[in-house]
Write a structure and sequence with these properties.
With 50 residues, this protein is an all-alpha fold. The protein is rod-shaped.
């Protein structure tokens, strides 16, 4: 019986791990869209104005 409990806990852990990876990738895209890309655009505009 303890084996089934461990299997269920392992399955639950894998689901949370998958959700964490998904959230982490969404956060990475959010950071890229809202911080890195505008920084590159403003950096290029500043560089051209020199």
């Amino acid at each position: 019986m303890s084996r089934k409990r461990y299997a269920v806990e392992g399955t639950c852990y894998n689901k949370w791990e998958e959700k964490f990876k998904l959230v982490r990738s969404v956060v990475d895209w959010t950071i890229a869209l809202y911080f890195i890309i505008p920084a590159l655009i403003f950096g290029a505009m500043y560089y051209r104005s020199l």
